[in-house]
Amino acid sequence: MTISHSQFNQEIFDKARATRTPLVGAFELTRSCNLACRMCYVRKYPAAGKPLSEQLSAGQWLEIGRQAAKAGMLYLLLTGGEIFLRPDFFEIYEGLYKLGLQISLNTNATLITPAIAERLAQHPPRTVAVTIYGASPATYADVSGDATGFERVLRGIRLLDENKLNVRLRTTVIRQNLADFEKIYQLSQELGHGLRLVDYVFAEDEEGEDPYAVRLSPVEQRECASRLYGWIVARQNEELKAGTEEQASTEEEDNDPTDIEQQREEPWKEAKHAFLCPAGNYSFSVNAAGKLLACLLMDEPGLGMGADVSLGEAWKQLKDLCEAVPVCRECAECEIRAHCSVCPAKLKTETGAFAKKAPYLCQMAEVNFAASKGER
Amino acid sequence: MKIADGFVLRQIIDTWIVVPVGKEVSQSGNMLSLSETSALLWERLEQGADEEMLTELLCERYETDRETAAADVKEFLREMEELNVLTRE
Fold first, then answer.
1. Which of A81, A218, A280, B84 is most buried (most C-beta within 10 Å)?
2. What are the structural domain ranges in chain B?
3. How far apart are CA A69 and CA A67, in angstroms?
C-alpha cells in the first residue's frame, strides 16, 4: 500500500523529537473566562479578563496558525480562558482547521449551545476536553464562583455527545470539591465517559495562610489518584464479568498529543536540558498576548513575535533559550526522581527559580515512591 | 478524474499526510499517510493531471519502464478510489 489510514503516527513524534520540529502547539485564544476557579493559573495573569477587543484578533491567530503549520505543526490545542467567549471563535477554528491541523479543544463546556455543538460537528475537533469541577451547584459555586455552572456543564457535555464529538472528561480535585470526588466519578460514568484526574495544582499566592486551603496535600492528592484507579479497576472487572467491556480503551486511543501532562518523556537521565516533556523539544505555546512560549504554565523563556519575526524563526530562538534554562541539580540527582513530576514550570511557580527544588514536589515524589512499593 | 474536495496534503518533516478538512469528509477524522511517490502523484492530480500524465511523470522521474509506471499509477488510483478520495468525472 502506498496510502494508508493514519490515526496516530508515533513515527512522526519520534522524528519531531529528533529534529526538534514544532509538531504540537497550543494557542491560548483568550484569558477571559466566565468562571473564576480558585486553582486556575490563568487567574494569576494580570491580563486575565482583558476585553476581547484588546486581545489578538482572529486574523492574527490565523496568521500565527499559518506560520506554525509552515514550521511543521500538525496537532494544535485551542485553550483559554474560555474559548467560547470569543464571538469570533468559529472564524479562528474553521480557518485553522482548513490548514490541515488536527485540533483539540479545552473548554469548561458551560457555554455550549445546540448551535455551537452542531457547528463543531461539521468540522469535528480531535478531542474536546471538559473539566468537571463538582457534582452539585453548591460545589460549582465554591470552586468556580458560579452555581449555574453545574447544570450548564452537564447540558454542554450532552450536546457534545449528541453531536458525536470526542469528549474527554477530567477533574481537578481541590479542598473545595474533595468531598464530591466520588460523585464526580459517578457522574462521568453516567455520562458514559472515562475520567482523568489532573495530577498537579499550582500553589496559591497567599502567603501565611493554610498552604492547603485550596490545593490538596501530596498525600491527599495521591489518595485521590489511588481512589480513581480503584474505581476504574472495579468497573473494568464488572464489565469483564458482564461481558460488556465497551469502555475499555487502549492507551494509544486515549493518547492526546496536545495534552502535555500525558506526554512525559523517559528516561529522564538522558535528558540534555531541563525540559523533559515535549515543551521546547517539539511542542510550543502561544499565549493570549501573542508571545511564543515553551509552555503556557510559565511566562519564560518566551519571545514576542510580529511582522519582522515569524513563528518559525522565533521557534529556533526558543529552542536555544530552553537549553539555557538551568537544570535543578538536586532534582537530577535525586534517587526517587523517576517518581517525580517535576518540570521547569512547576519549579518556577513553586520556588521562583528553575534550579531550586520544591518541597511540595519532593513530598509528592516521596508519597508516589512509597505507594509504588506498597501498592499498585 | 480529480481529488475529492476537502483534503489537504501536508509534509511533516519527511512524512506526507493527507488531512480531511472538508465538511463532508472531516467526520471520519482519519488522516492518510502517503509514500513520497504517492504524494507526488497527489500533487499532480491536484494540478489537473490525468492518468497518462501521471504515468509519464513516473517514467521520467524514476527512469522506470512505461509498463511498470502505468501499473503503479493504476494501483495508486485504485487505492484512492477505495479510500473515497478520488472522483471520476
1. A81
2. 2-83
3. 5
* Residue A363 Ramachandran class (φ > 0 left, ψ -120 to 50 alpha, else beta): alpha
Could you say which of B26, B31, B38 has the minimum Cβ distance to residue A124?
B26
How far is residue B53 CA from its own chain's centroid?
A: 13
- Best interface-test mutation with A: which of B3, B11, B14, B21 has the largest number of A CBs within 10 A? B21
Show which of residues 46-75 on chain A sit within 8 Å of chain B, judged by CB atoms.
Answer: 69, 72, 74
**Fold entry, domain B2-83:** Arc Repressor Mutant, subunit A (1.10.10)
Chain segment A173-201, per-residue pLDDT in tens: 999 999 999 999 999 999 999 999 998 99
Cell numbers placing A184: 464526580
What mean pLDDT value characterizes chain A? 88
Backbone angles phi and psi of A368, in degrees to 5: -65, -40
Instruction: Give the minimum alpha-carbon distance from A361 to chain B in angstroms, rounded to a whole number.
Output: 36
A49 vs A27 pLDDT, higher one: A27
Q: Whole-angstrom Cα distance, residue A156 to residue A332?
A: 43
Return d(Cα A318, Cα A303) in angstroms, integer: 7
Gap between the Cα atoms of A135 and A184, Å rounded: 5
Helical (H) or strand (E) element with A167: strand A167-171
Boundaries of every domain in chain A = 10-325, 327-376
Count of pairs with CB atoms under 8 A, one residue in A, one in B = 84
| CA B4, chain centre distance (Å) | 11
Nearest-angstrom CA–CA distance, B29 and B19: 8
ipTM entry: 0.89
Residues of A in contact with B83 (CB under 8 A): 3, 5
Domain over A10-325 is classified CATH 3.20.20.70: yes
- For residue A102, what is the nearest residue in chain B, using CA coordinates? B19
The pLDDT tens digits for A62-118 are: 999 999 999 999 999 999 999 999 999 999 999 999 999 999 999 999 999 999 999
Distance CA A260, CA B35 (A): 29
